[in-house]
Amino acid sequence: MPNEFCEHCDKWIEIPVLNGNDKFTLLNILRNEGILYAIKFVKDQNYLELKESKEFVDHICKEKGTCHKCGHIGLWKEYGICTECKSLCINLNK
Ligand SMILES: [Zn+2]
Ligand SMILES: [Zn+2]
Question: I want to staple 48 with a disulfide (CB 3.0 to 4.6 A). Which of 22, 26, 53, 81 is the partner?
């Protein structure tokens, strides 16, 4: 399982390898139905256990390049550390 380090949480976050349309689906759920449904999706698809699902989803940017935590704009890589709040930012949409 790949993982990425979050400087804000000071811990490694497990990153599942999402297959097929699951990246797209997950992002849509996160945007339209909310974080709890996104966590449930990751868990129900057997990508991660509940705790790890929450940690993963907590770091996904709803809008590409916009930090999920502080709203800072400017992170365009798939994975990056926000220069403002030091959170790991995951951009599912490349
Ligand atoms: Zn974090
Ligand atoms: Zn930030």
Answer: 53
Name the more confident of 65 and 2.
Answer: 65
Instruction: State the residue range of the domain holding 28.
Output: 3-90
Question: pTM of the full predicted structure?
Answer: 0.95
32-63 in b/e form (b: 16+ CB < 10 A) is: eeeeeebbebbbeeebbeeebbbbbbbbbbee
Residue 94, pLDDT score: 66
Tokens for 80, please give them.
Answer: 């990056």
Q: What is the whole-number distance in angstroms between the Cα of residue 5 and the centre of ligand 2?
A: 14
Radius of gyration of the chain (CA): 12
Tell which residue, 66, 14, 58, has the closest CA to residue 38. Answer: 58
How many domains is the chain partitioned into structurally?
Answer: 1
pLDDT tens for 38-63 read 999 999 999 999 999 999 999 999 99
